[in-house]
Amino acid sequence: MGAAAHIARPDAATRLRAAQEVRARQRRRTRLFLLAPALGIIGIFGLFPLSIALVYSFLEPGTYGGVEWVFSYDAYVQFLFERDIFDDTLSFNSAYLQIFGRSFGLAITTMIGTLILGFPVAYFIAARPPEQRNFWLFAITLPFWTNLLIRTYSMLLIVRDEGFVNLMLMKLGLISEPLEMLYTDGAVLAGLVYSYLPFMILPIYASLEKFDFSLLEAGHDLYATRTQVFRHIIIPITRPGIVAGCVLVLIPALGAYITPELLGGGKKLMIGNLIALQFGSGRNWPFGAAAALILMAVVLIALLVSLRAGASKEGGHG
Amino acid sequence: MIDVKNVTKRFGEGQAAVTALGDVSLTIPEGSFFTLLGPSGCGKTTLLRLIAGFELPTEGEIALDGESIGHLAPNNRPVNTVFQNYALFPHMSVARNVGFGLEMLKRPKAEIDSTINEMLDLVQLGEFATRRVDQLSGGQQQRVALARALAPRPKVLLLDEPLSALDLKLRKGMQSELKRLQHETGITFVFVTHDQGEALAMSDQIAVMSAGAIRQVGTPEEIYTAPQSRFVADFIGDTNIVNATLLGFDGDAAKIKFGEGTPLTVHAASTSLSPGPVHVALRPETIHVVDERAETALLRGEVVDSTYFGAGSQMLVRLEDGVSVHVQVSTPRPVGSRVGLECDTSMLHVLED
């Protein structure tokens, strides 16, 4: 009996260890299976094309589009300098920087616009009784049921010279000549704000949904005015939602293509249009690829800096 | 001193209006521990919110030290609240939570810092100043909420069922803690609870409320030993309410009899009752069990149940008229036996309905 127990004990321990290893292997396998589809898609449709763009940006443009397999960093030089056709001397050219600047300006203004318009909407929805919220969220996502292109075309009909707005203003006798609204920065901005507003509302709503509204009473009770409650309580607590909304609006707005193309009439280039142009009639694929990568790098750096700043601010409280 | 004068609060309008408080008047003495006690929906929290300023009265006036405050916003009243769910600011450290009120009042930094330290010492959380509030236990969060509300030195501290989220042991500890804080600071505490044990243990005065009205105001002893109405007697402790016949009054004392028994002289909540059937309050601990045929027995019945609770047993005795009475005894009689119940007549109390 005693001997049998002695033999049984190491056996049980070994079996336990074997079982533990099986469990660990299963866990690793499960994780791999769960991640595999996403990794596959990111790899095939994200990293692979990006590598192609990276390679192309260091090649020479083909005469009829495409690339010549000759190494060159001309595409990056071209971004800042103009090469003289005759003597190959470089002179500084800010044309593309200006397009970048305009794009950032428009994208940041869009972000601020959607924030100012979107925050009150998100707050309004979060303050509804729970059974009413779904209706309002449904209303916010309704535009997604229709293609962005169609929606942008319909905006075009509204703001053009013979459009709804001008007709109404002229009917009312406020103006005699149609206001030129189409193909202006204002039209592009309005289109961008309209297109990206839901991307601001939804993350802010998500952070407000969990918001404990008794904190507002606590703030008022502790002598804070309504403005102070907004500044010291609502804003800091919903900051993650605000940051997420800003990122979700700023980045796609920077690369926007359809809206500036239709409402800006292609006259006012944004980065997206510039890049598209290089792969189309511009026939300068390396330059298009370089512009796309520069944009990506700038966005990445800006994002990292802002996240770092947000994190250190958060840490300051604790 | 808080003076609530003829305050009515209705929620909603027209047909759908609900009256939460109907013409309530109340005086809360300065520096006292005052409890609003009642079942849920009785209007006690509404009254608290009216004093805090989260709601404005539909009618009536609220005055603090003679000055009308009923119309002021919460941030303009020298009154602070400890919320039921604490409502601590999750994005701030313990210290910033405690200092928030003073910060909003634009007090000098040095004063804020020293008050934060003082308050955290008062609630014994000195070493937790830099913690985030979500790193604290429920009891600690409770203390932070107290420190935060006390830091601006309000004239009145309102407490909305602050102990209801704590477990029993912590709650007992916080009861004496609150009592101590009230004593040390001298601030008027207005405490809302539905727990009669809590109210009796802590209060200088209790206002018992039901259905948007105040039923009785008094010291815990008065409320417990001399409930005026059936509602108050029923709500405070395990009071037995038995039927009797009122024969008349002799000065302030009432003459009653149980069944066909001998007339007794007892206390009465009011001398305006008319002779006939009345209810009499009978505390379980004042009843003695005697033999059924004993001459001193005022009531007779049959033991229908007996529960052991450690310090003794609680017997349930069904009287001849079908009313059941709880009795506390050290040695219970067997279930089914017939007993007589004897009671000090000075502990009997005729109730208003």
TrEMBL record, chain A:
<feature type="transmembrane region" description="Helical">
    <location>
        <begin position="104"/>
        <end position="126"/>
    </location>
</feature>
<feature type="transmembrane region" description="Helical">
    <location>
        <begin position="287"/>
        <end position="307"/>
    </location>
</feature>
<feature type="transmembrane region" description="Helical">
    <location>
        <begin position="135"/>
        <end position="159"/>
    </location>
</feature>
<keyword id="KW-1133">Transmembrane helix</keyword>
<protein>
    <submittedName>
        <fullName>Spermidine/putrescine transport system permease protein PotB</fullName>
    </submittedName>
</protein>
<dbReference type="GO" id="GO:0055085">
    <property type="term" value="P:transmembrane transport"/>
</dbReference>
<feature type="transmembrane region" description="Helical">
    <location>
        <begin position="32"/>
        <end position="59"/>
    </location>
</feature>
<keyword id="KW-1003">Cell membrane</keyword>
<feature type="domain" description="ABC transmembrane type-1">
    <location>
        <begin position="100"/>
        <end position="306"/>
    </location>
</feature>
<dbReference type="InterPro" id="IPR000515">
    <property type="entry name" value="MetI-like"/>
</dbReference>
<dbReference type="InterPro" id="IPR035906">
    <property type="entry name" value="MetI-like_sf"/>
</dbReference>
<feature type="transmembrane region" description="Helical">
    <location>
        <begin position="186"/>
        <end position="206"/>
    </location>
</feature>
<dbReference type="GO" id="GO:0005886">
    <property type="term" value="C:plasma membrane"/>
</dbReference>
<keyword id="KW-0812">Transmembrane</keyword>
<dbReference type="Pfam" id="PF00528">
    <property type="entry name" value="BPD_transp_1"/>
</dbReference>
<feature type="transmembrane region" description="Helical">
    <location>
        <begin position="241"/>
        <end position="259"/>
    </location>
</feature>
<keyword id="KW-0472">Membrane</keyword>
<comment type="similarity">
    <text>Belongs to the binding-protein-dependent transport system permease family. CysTW subfamily.</text>
</comment>
<keyword id="KW-0813">Transport</keyword>
UniProtKB/TrEMBL annotation, chain B:
<dbReference type="InterPro" id="IPR008995">
    <property type="entry name" value="Mo/tungstate-bd_C_term_dom"/>
</dbReference>
<keyword id="KW-0378">Hydrolase</keyword>
<dbReference type="Pfam" id="PF08402">
    <property type="entry name" value="TOBE_2"/>
</dbReference>
<dbReference type="InterPro" id="IPR003593">
    <property type="entry name" value="AAA+_ATPase"/>
</dbReference>
<comment type="function">
    <text>Part of the ABC transporter complex PotABCD involved in spermidine/putrescine import. Responsible for energy coupling to the transport system.</text>
</comment>
<keyword id="KW-0813">Transport</keyword>
<keyword id="KW-1278">Translocase</keyword>
<dbReference type="Pfam" id="PF00005">
    <property type="entry name" value="ABC_tran"/>
</dbReference>
<dbReference type="InterPro" id="IPR050093">
    <property type="entry name" value="ABC_SmlMolc_Importer"/>
</dbReference>
<keyword id="KW-0067">ATP-binding</keyword>
<dbReference type="InterPro" id="IPR013611">
    <property type="entry name" value="Transp-assoc_OB_typ2"/>
</dbReference>
<dbReference type="InterPro" id="IPR027417">
    <property type="entry name" value="P-loop_NTPase"/>
</dbReference>
<dbReference type="InterPro" id="IPR005893">
    <property type="entry name" value="PotA-like"/>
</dbReference>
<dbReference type="InterPro" id="IPR003439">
    <property type="entry name" value="ABC_transporter-like_ATP-bd"/>
</dbReference>
<comment type="similarity">
    <text>Belongs to the ABC transporter superfamily. Spermidine/putrescine importer (TC 3.A.1.11.1) family.</text>
</comment>
<protein>
    <recommendedName>
        <fullName>Spermidine/putrescine import ATP-binding protein PotA</fullName>
        <ecNumber>7.6.2.11</ecNumber>
    </recommendedName>
</protein>
<feature type="domain" description="ABC transporter">
    <location>
        <begin position="2"/>
        <end position="236"/>
    </location>
</feature>
<dbReference type="InterPro" id="IPR017871">
    <property type="entry name" value="ABC_transporter-like_CS"/>
</dbReference>
<dbReference type="GO" id="GO:0016887">
    <property type="term" value="F:ATP hydrolysis activity"/>
</dbReference>
<dbReference type="GO" id="GO:0015417">
    <property type="term" value="F:ABC-type polyamine transporter activity"/>
</dbReference>
<keyword id="KW-1003">Cell membrane</keyword>
<dbReference type="GO" id="GO:0005524">
    <property type="term" value="F:ATP binding"/>
</dbReference>
